[in-house]
Amino acid sequence: MHTGIRKVGNMEWEVPVGYVPGMRVPGRFYLSDDLAGSVEEGAVRQLANVATLPGIVKYSLAMPDIHWGYGFPIGGVAAFDMEHGVISPGGVGFDINCGVRLIATPPTEKDITRKRELIEALFRTIPTGVGAKSTLKLSARDLLDMMDEGASWAVRNGYGHENDLEHCEENGSMKDASSADVSQKARQRGMPQCGTLGSGNHFLELQVVAEVTDERAARAFGIEKGQICCMIHCGSRGLGHQVCTDHLKVLEKATGNYNIQVPDRQLACAPVSSPEGKAYLGAMAAAANYAWANRQMITHNARGVFASFFGLEHEDMPLVYDVAHNVAKIEDHRVDGRSMRLCVHRKGATRAFGPGSRDIPRAYSEEGQPVIIPGSMGSSSYLLKGTATAMEKTFGSTCHGAGRLMSRTQAKKSTRGAEVQKILAKQGIIVRATSQAVIAEEAPEAYKPSSEVVRVVHEAGLSLTVARLEPLGVIKG
Questions:
Q1: Which residue out of 67, 167, 345, 400 is catalytically annotated?
Q2: Which of 30, 209, 344, 465 has the most CB atoms around it within 10 Å of its CB?
Q3: Per the confidence metrics, is the pTM higher than 0.85?
Q4: What is the pLDDT of residues 293-332, one digit of tens each?
């Protein structure tokens, strides 16, 4: 481990005040000894830099999928008090509300007799790749309504059913959304892209439930061994990216205007209660709502493919849950025995609220919120549940995925897409993508082992494993 960092628990490490000048609180991150060598010094420094921001509460946190990002590390969590604290686009990232959802289906693995045809049909039906365009022709009014309403706009227009909304974090819509703070350029980028998967690490994956480790929670979540599931990972496309770009320019000026000292300009921020902070929060929430509508529309189209293959009704394929990875939200938490209203940034981190939370579906209340951790094409994905420990230690947060070991450039230099595709095919995993380059970028070896990352959060008590899912086929942009 890097000099100056000390271990303070089985899976818990501390970056002490003084690691970088101006830290107001310590940094804390969660990692096993096996993964300790994978942490970049730059990511730890970013974690420490976040601890210098005004109004930060308790710790600057990172999950075991920590790696270097823009300003904040990916895998980072930071909460700021509403009176003195700040909001920062660097704590959310460019792909606002990049998130993941899991859909359960009735077929089992033995029912998948035409797997390649099924993957091809999904690839034809769901637009993928850079600049992919939707078959839906949105009007300007539709886009505004979508940004205000989120997934409920999609359901209201026939892309799903009411139960889907209950099984989304925030019911698929942030109430603070302000489409008026989304630029015309961002709207133009978003108009043709809703209902598309995008590129990079975004995917739709066909999976089988290979193991159930918590039978009671699995029953509550509607999951059983041998069942086929569909996992979807994508975000707010060009609209969210443009919202981040636009508001970074405003907040870079605001940082100086409010005399906020930051060690890295990528930590541009403004007081949560300032006009600039409120405008960013409103635009970010609008982009988050767009992302929920996007995943809802992809879900509808994927259900259509399954329905035609297996003679199912859309209602036969319930949404288990949908979680957001990149958002800042106003939440109430108990800190040192008192209730505080906080602006919680999660960047490459997942909300993991524990049993009894009023913010999770009633049917899941006794178990805790479903947490969905994707693997990396050739590795396992996991379904977990949120815990009281996460509420106490990490503002109800856990990891969001395996976390990268290599940059996309490094991955492309180290392997070829065709070779990755061939190796996965031998394992029975069909990969369909718009290019060989994207397969190389997302090769399983470019990521930490998902099993080890999940072991860390399970043993740290931040979320507890419920089921393991194995990939059967994947489509990527």
A1: 400
A2: 30
A3: yes
A4: 999 999 999 999 999 999 999 999 999 999 999 999 999 9
